[in-house]
């Protein structure tokens, strides 16, 4: 499952990857991400939550890259990733080098609590 939401006052886009993520779920969520980002100004922050990820299909990588490019065009300032265990790292760092014109500052946390404190939530 893939969920996207925003908090306009906190200038925050939250992308949650839950259970076993398939490319079709990301494709269905793409329009939601586009719509949500129109409500955010340049300088927004991205919180990517992988804490509930079970697995992700390998064919999701191109769609993840497209989302990164959307964030890049919209002016993401900071990326905070919640990756509780190295086995849940799906290669976002590597993809960032190919899909951001200038990779933004990125911080990886082990828990959502740690990420929330970092973001002042």
Offer a concise description of the structure:
The protein has a single domain, classed as Transcription Regulator spoIIAA (2-Layer Sandwich). It is 37% helix and 28% strand.
Report on this model:
This protein has 121 residues and is of the alpha/beta class. The chain has a single domain (2-119), classed as 2-Layer Sandwich (Transcription Regulator spoIIAA), CATH 3.30.750.24. Helices cover 37% and strands 28% of the residues. It has helices at residues 23-37, 61-74, 92-99, 112-119; strands at residues 2-7, 12-17, 19-21, 45-49, 53-56, 78-82, 105-109. The strands form two sheets. Strands 1-2-4-6-7 form a five-stranded mixed β-sheet, sandwiched between helices. A two-stranded parallel ribbon has the order 3-5. A hairpin with a 4-residue loop joins strand 1 (2-7) and strand 2. The model has no long low-confidence stretch (mean pLDDT 91).
How many helix segments? Answer: 4
* Main sheet: strands, sense, barrel: 5 strands, mixed
Class derived from helix and strand content: alpha/beta
Which superfamily, in CATH terms, is the homologous superfamily? STAS domain
Using the 3D structure, state the CATH architecture. 2-Layer Sandwich
**The CATH C-level class name:** Alpha Beta
CATH topology-level fold name: Transcription Regulator spoIIAA
> What gap, in angstroms, lies between the N and C termini?
24 Å
Strand order of the largest sheet: 1-2-4-6-7
The secondary-structure element order is EEEHEEHEHEH
Helix content: 25-40%
How many strands in all? 7
What shape does the CA trace take?
A: globular
| Residues in β-strands, percent | 25-35%
* C-alpha-based Rg, rounded: 13 Å
Global mean pLDDT: 91
Uncertain stretches: none
Number of domains: 1
């Amino acid at each position: 499952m893939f969920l996207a939401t925003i908090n306009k006052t906190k200038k925050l886009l939250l992308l949650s990857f839950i259970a076993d993520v398939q490319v079709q779920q990301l494709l269905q969520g793409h329009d939601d991400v586009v719509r949500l980002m129109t409500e955010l100004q340049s300088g927004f922050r991205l919180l990517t939550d992988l804490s509930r990820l079970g697995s992700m299909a390998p064919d999701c990588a191109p769609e993840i890259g497209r989302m990164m490019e959307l964030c890049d065009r919209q002016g993401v300032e900071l990326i905070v990733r919640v990756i509780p265990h190295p086995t849940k790292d799906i290669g976002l760092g590597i993809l960032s080098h190919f899909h951001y014109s200038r990779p933004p500052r990125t911080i990886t946390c082990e828990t959502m609590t740690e990420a929330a404190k970092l973001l002042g939530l």
